[in-house]
Amino acid sequence: MKRAIVLTYHCIGTPKNSVRLPGLYVTSKMFAFQMYYLKTFGYNVVRLNDILAFSLEQPSNSKLVAITFDDGFKSFLEFAFPILDKYKFPATVFLVSSLAGKHNAWDSDYVNEIRELMDWDDINFLKEKAIDFGAHSKTHPDLPKLSESDLETEIRGSKDDIESKLSIPIDFFCYPYGSYDDKVTASVKRAGFKAAFTTKKGYVRTGDKPYEFNRMSIKLNTGPIAFSYKLLL
């Protein structure tokens, strides 16, 4: 059976020694290698709409890879975008909508680092450069712990925020912390998203549930061999 892969990144750069969870980083040098690898070995780097189409009806195209970034860190604009632009690769950034232009308030104390988030000028610039955007809630909470009304605010509210700022449809959602349940997926559907992405490790196959798509996380310790292994489609 054919399968596709959705890669997940967070921060591009080199973590400080004091940072907790340095695995959320990928160095710019390693990211450049990974994009070179995709280009050199003939992977079809596609948009999330293509991944959704693949899951609904298996196409003839093979070696499909989509690239996603969670949270909307400024390091995407500084380090990842120039490399993606070099190879003309599409990518999707999932935004924490009410924190654009601010910082990672949801975990800065825990990770011992304040990480700057892109502002709406940055995001609009990237939109014009063919970068796609999805919603990652308004404030990055643990969604299953919320009431129905708070879920509506976080999920539908993030979609409304981004669409109002970018004047384009926002069709894809990404669960903060990868945390969801039936109540959360129902709220995502009601908000009008076409699909949603988890942090569960795995490929995307035809027939997969569109609101529970797997992804493959790329981390600081994902070296060349590990990266190539993840791409065994």
Structure summary:
This protein has 233 residues and is of the alpha/beta class. The chain has helices at 28-40, 48-56, 74-87, 108-111, 120-128, 148-166, 182-190, 224-230; strands spanning 3-9, 11-12, 25-26, 44-45, 64-71, 92-95, 132-135, 172-174, 195-201, 204-205, 213-217.
Q: Could you please describe the fold and organization of this structure?
A:
The structure is a single chain. With 233 residues, the chain is α/β, with parallel strands linked by helices. It has one domain: Glycoside hydrolase/deacetylase (TIM Barrel, Alpha-Beta Barrel). Helix content is 36%, strand content 20%. It has eight helices and eleven strands. Strands 1, 4, 5, 6, 7, 8, 9, 10 and 11 form a nine-stranded mixed β-sheet that branches. Helix 1 packs parallel to helix 3. It is globular and about 45 Å long. 40% of the residues are buried.
What oligomeric state best describes the polypeptide chains here?
single chain
Average predicted confidence as pLDDT:
96
N→C terminal distance:
10 Å
Radius of gyration: 17 Å
Q: Could you estimate the helical fraction of the residues in percent?
A: 25-40%
- Total helices: the number is 8
Unreliable stretches: none
Largest sheet: 9 strands, mixed
Fill in the CATH topology. TIM Barrel
Structural class assignment: alpha/beta
Shape: globular
Strand content: 15-25%
By DSSP, the count of extended strands is: 11
CATH superfamily: Glycoside hydrolase/deacetylase
Q: What's the arrangement of secondary structure elements?
A:
Layout: E1 3-9, E2 11-12, E3 25-26, H1 28-40, E4 44-45, H2 48-56, E5 64-71, H3 74-87, E6 92-95, H4 108-111, H5 120-128, E7 132-135, H6 148-166, E8 172-174, H7 182-190, E9 195-201, E10 204-205, E11 213-217, H8 224-230
Parallel strand pairs: 1-5, 1-11, 2-3, 4-5, 5-6, 6-7, 8-9, 9-11
Antiparallel strand pairs: 1-10
